[in-house]
Structure formats: structure tokens, C-alpha cells
Write a structure and sequence with these properties.
It is a single chain. The protein is mainly alpha-helical. It is built from 20 helices and 6 strands. The chain folds into 3 domains: 148 residues, Alpha Horseshoe (MgtE N-terminal fold), CATH 1.25.60; 101 residues, CBS-domain, CATH 3.10.580.10; 170 residues, Tetracycline Repressor, domain 2 (Orthogonal Bundle), CATH 1.10.357. The protein has a 3-stranded mixed beta sheet. The longest helix is centred in the last third of the chain and has 31 residues. The N terminus is likely disordered.
Length: 459
């Protein structure tokens, strides 16, 4: 906790912002007590400041930034959720935004600008120094979620004929070096990438040594238009700390570092989890209307599948009227199938996202999941058949639900693996659409199998 506000603890034992700290800041803002606000927040780390901003009401966020003025830490802006970030930037004057951008790495600056409309971008960029403006404009031209958007344009590139001493002397006096870097890049006069030199090797080499003699040419440059998920996979696969980014002419245009990839992995994982729940793009800071709008389409799709399952049930209305036990037991079959399908689907979607599942092993994985579904179906058939027999005293009813359980869990396993594979084949996101289709299959097959068998054997 910071010295200026030591009387109020910042975080609780679970790592969240303490309510009393939040209330102290909110009360000071409401009372217009600027010295108190600054004493509480001036020394906060940018990540802590971002968490605080998100918890404040919209008017409190604007008041806090205004109170801090030139002491506001621009590095807090990229840490904010998208909705809060956009609202905060909207409340900030263009001059303050432009000043904040100059304090950030180029990739973070692009992150702040990319969701603004063209007119707002132009107003802010016009207030930046020429070379910074040109660099950001070029980065904004790259596709969203591409390597060009997440790369930093601040890097160190030297010619191969320089000596180690020249390079070190250059880094000591240059004004535009990146805040953190792990290697320097070696380029020819056309800025084509030759290789790199790790900082530890540079510092261990004698001053007269030429850069060319210690250059590592075994690089894995990333095309500027590569998708950020593929970039993250390369970092994981080859244990990279940083990687150069090259354009279509193989010229060095930027660098991606491990901290950029951590953010990409977190963003992609969160996105997949939210999409599988039908709430992609949603955050707790969204308004009631935005949240309702984002959830409505998913709930509407689920309504359609529920109606379809109800239609199947209505086909066996007479059967259910003759044996009430069917109405008691049929939700069990559908529920078990739905859960089994969701398990398989979750594994399949994740494997597709990490490229652990593809054409090379698709058949083997489908057979594996089918076997798992069949085996689970047989196990739960025995369990549920025995329960139905002791519950209703009918061996035939136990046999019907046992067979239905086998059929539905097998169908759930097939649907859980084949539907994501099919969606991926047609370039559709399995994380978004798989859940609706899998639920439809398990509900329809479960009800049809159970009630159909009951109609044949029991009624």
C-alpha cells in the first residue's frame, strides 16, 4: 500500500479492491476534496489505478482523471475493460489523450485508438509529433487481431558492420530506445532482417567484435498479417521471448514480446469462454441495455431449440398420458445427454483453438469420443435402469430408460465432436455456435429415443 494513503488499505486478502478504500476515494471525489483524492491515488500502480477506475461510477471516473491531471498514469488505460476504456477516453480531451499516447508503447497506443471512429482518431493523431503519428497510422492500417496490431514499432536495429562498442555507445545516447528490450536486430541497408543479437551475448563480447560475427541468423520472423492466435502458438511452440515482425517484402517493421503474448492468450481464452456461454464481448461494466442486447440473440436461439424439443415431446402426448412415469424420467435422459455433449464439445473447441485437433488426428479423436460416449452410456444405463426399477417397480421401464441413455450419450459424444469439426471446416467459430447445435441434438435424440421406445414397448 502506498505511503500517502497508508491509513486505508488498498486490497483485501483475495486481491480485490477493498470497499472502504473505494468508498474513501468516491466520497473524496463527491466532496471535491482534491488533496484527499491525490493522497489516496497518486502513487497507485497503473494496474491498481485501472481496477479502481472500473469500480467507480462513470462521473467518478471522469472526476478522478481530471483531479490527477498531468499526474494521471496513461499506462492504466490499456488495463481497462473495453467498455470502460472507451467511456474514459470519450470523457478525456484530445490533448490529454495525445499526451497519454506518448507515454505508452506503440502497441498499447494502437490498442487505445483502434476502437475510436476515424474522426476521433484523426483529431488525436493530429496532436502527436510527426514520426509518432506516422508510426501509429501505419499500425492502424493492419487488420485487427493481426501481428501488425500487437507489435511494438520501438526497437533497436543496427547494421552488421558495426562493432559491439559502437552499438553499446549508440544505445547509451539514443533518445528513442524502447523501455524494455531483450535483443537487438541486425538489418541490411534496405532494412531486410539478417538476424539478432541477444543482450547477454552483446554485453559479454569485447568492444572491437563486429556485430556480424555474433549475429544469430536462426530466427522465426512473423509475417505482419499473421493472426495473433497463430503468433501466440509460435511463442509457445518455440519458447520465444521476443520475435521480429516483417512485412511482405521481408523488411523489419516491429517486434512482439512475451508480455504482448500474455495479453493475447488471456484475451483469446476469455473470448472463447464467453462465446461458449453466449456472452461474447460482454463485461461486468456494460450497461443494462448493452448486456440485454448481447444476451438476447443467444437466448432466442435457445428458445428455438427448446420449442423443437417440445414439438418432439408433443408427438408422444398420448404415450405420456398413459404412463405418467415417463414425464418424471424423460428430463433425466435429456439432461445427461446435454452434459455429456457439453463435455465433449468443450474439449473439442479447446483442441481446435490450440491446433491439437485437425485433419491429421480427427478420425482417431472422433472414434475415441464415440467409445467414451458408448461406455458412459452403458454405465449410466445400468445405474438409471436400476433406479427406475426400484422407483416405479417396472423392469420394462428400467430397460427403456437404459437403452435411451445409451443412445443419447452416444449421440451426445458424436455431436460434441463432429459439430465443432464441421463448423471449423466451414470457417465458422465453433466456440459461438456449437452449444446451440449440440443442445438441440441431445434434447431431440434423448426425448425421441426415450418416448419412442416407451411407445413401442410399454404402451
Amino acid at each position: 500500500m502506498q505511503d500517502a494513503a497508508s491509513e486505508v488499505q488498498l486490497r483485501d486478502e483475495e486481491g480485490g479492491i477493498r470497499p472502504d478504500f473505494l468508498h474513501a476515494v468516491a466520497d473524496a471525489l463527491e466532496e471535491g476534496d482534491a488533496p484527499r483524492v491525490r493522497a489516496l491515488t497518486l502513487d497507485l500502480h497503473e494496474a491498481d489505478l485501472a481496477d479502481l477506475i472500473q469500480l467507480l461510477r462513470p462521473d467518478g471516473r471522469a472526476a478522478l482523471i481530471s483531479t490527477l491531471g498531468d499526474d494521471f498514469k496513461a499506462a492504466a488505460l490499456p488495463e481497462l475493460d473495453e467498455g470502460v476504456r472507451d467511456q474514459v477516453i470519450e470523457d478525456m480531451p484530445p490533448e490529454q489523450i495525445a499526451e497519454a499516447l506518448q507515454q505508452l508503447d506503440s502497441d498499447e497506443a494502437v490498442y487505445l485508438l483502434e476502437d475510436l471512429d476515424k474522426e476521433e482518431q484523426s483529431d488525436i493523431l493530429a496532436k502527436l509529433p510527426y514520426f509518432e503519428r506516422i508510426a501509429l497510422e501505419r499500425s492502424l492500417e493492419y487488420a485487427e487481431d493481426s501481428a501488425g496490431r500487437i507489435m511494438q514499432t520501438d526497437l533497436i536495429a543496427v547494421p552488421p558492420f558495426w562493432s559491439v562498442g559502437q552499438t553499446i555507445d549508440y544505445m547509451r545516447v539514443a533518445d528513442n530506445l524502447p523501455d524494455r528490450f531483450y535483443e537487438i536486430f541486425v538489418v541490411n541497408p534496405a532494412y531486410h532482417l539478417i538476424g539478432s543479437v541477444a543482450l547477454n551475448r552483446l554485453l559479454r563480447s569485447k568492444r572491437p567484435t563486429t556485430i556480424e560475427s555474433i549475429t544469430d541468423e536462426d530466427l522465426r520472423p512473423i509475417p505482419v498479417d499473421s493472426d495473433q492466435e497463430e503468433v501466440a502458438r509460435q511463442f509457445e511452440r518455440y519458447n520465444l521471448t521476443s520475435a521480429p515482425v516483417v512485412d511482405e517484402d521481408k523488411r523489419l517493421v516491429g517486434v512482439i514480446t512475451a508480455d504482448d503474448i500474455v495479453e493475447v492468450v488471456q484475451e483469446e481464452a476469455s473470448e472463447d469462454i464467453l462465446r461458449m456461454g453466449g456472452v461474447g464481448g460482454e463485461s461486468v461494466s456494460d450497461t443494462v441495455w448493452e448486456t440485454t442486447r448481447l444476451r438476447f440473440s443467444w437466448l432466442l436461439a435457445n428458445l428455438v431449440t427448446a420449442i423443437l424439443a417440445s414439438i418432439v415431446i408433443s408427438l408422444f402426448e398420448a404415450t405420456i398420458e398413459q404412463m405418467v412415469a415417463l414425464a418424471v424420467l424423460m428430463p433425466i435422459v435429456a439432461s445427461m445427454g446435454g452434459n455429456a455433449g457439453t463435455q465433449t464439445m468443450t474439449v473439442a473447441v479447446r483442441a481446435l483453438a490450440t491446433q491439437d485437433l485437425g485433419a491429421a488426428n480427427a478420425v482417431r479423436v472422433v472414434l475415441r469420443e464415440s467409445a467414451v460416449g458408448l461406455l458412459n452410456g452403458l454405465l449410466f444405463a445400468a445405474i438409471m435402469g436400476a433406479i427406475a426399477y426400484f422407483w416405479f417397480g417396472s423392469g420394462e421401464l428400467g430397460l427403456v430408460i437404459a437403452v435411451a441413455m445409451v443412445v443419447n450419450l452416444f449421440a451426445a459424444a458424436l455431436a460434441g465432436i463432429l459439430i465443432p469439426l464441421g463448423l471449423e471446416k466451414f470457417n465458422l467459430d465453433p466456440a459461438i455456435a456449437s452449444g446451440v447445435f449440440v443442445t438441440t441434438v441431445t434434447d431431440v435424440v434423448g426425448f425421441f429415443a426415450f418416448l419412442g421406445l416407451a411407445a413401442l414397448w410399454l404402451v
